[in-house]
Design brief:
Blueprint lengths: L6 E6 L14 H15 L4 E6 L7 H6 L4 H25 L4 E5 L8 E2 L2 H9 L3 E5 L9 H11 L4 E6 L4 E2 L11 E2 L1 E2 L1 H6 L7 H9 L4 E5 L5 H6 L6 E3 L1
Parallel strand pairs: 1-2, 1-6, 2-5, 3-4, 3-5, 6-10, 9-11
Antiparallel strand pairs: 7-8, 10-11
Length: 236
Amino acid sequence: MVKKYRRILLKLGGECLLGAREYGIDPKAALEVAQEIKSLSETGTQVAVSIGAGNIFRGISAATNGIDRATADYMGMLATVMNALALQDAVEKIGVPSRVLSGLDMPAVAEPYIRRRAIRHLDKGRVVILAGGSGNPYFTTDTSAALRALEMGSEIILKATKVDGIYDKDPNKYPGAKKYAELTYMDALKERLEIMDTSAFALCMDNNLPIMVFNFFEKGNSKRAVMGEKIGTIVK
């Protein structure tokens, strides 16, 4: 089978590192995520990974509880760096070369995000793990993921979730919920389907960057996605 995508960006929520914990990082869960990333890399597809911080800190929810929004967002960016380092440790333990690139200047633990440097790492077969968001407050990790995907010339964003695609309503609450195999950006907007935040979605729509929503936690799904198999839901 010939791979469909040459370069992709995998968008992970910080929750994927939780495992059985209520918060923080479970090394076992990190290793399971790393195995999926390894399977992606072994196809020859160039892999960039953007990871959130929901397992440690959520800037928006902290802002609603009294912390200044900009300060809260910077704290969230710092949490993504912690997750990125944990993920790097896991992928390198199983033999996958990687680099952490941060939107925040943290030279002791991560390289600064420079577009050409990121592309060079990808061309050399390294997994690029993106941390620190865009380096600016008021932007979510969804938005920074869309921005980086476009900058690096990714052909698609693979949005990792716990469900096997996009439904017209919550499939956990409504057994008769309808799953979409494919959607246009306009259909998604009309149906008010919350795929990514508004800024991220607008970036993808304006630049014709497809988004695939799929169940990351079903073993082998990531590889199937990059090989062009029809899984999840694709928005284009």
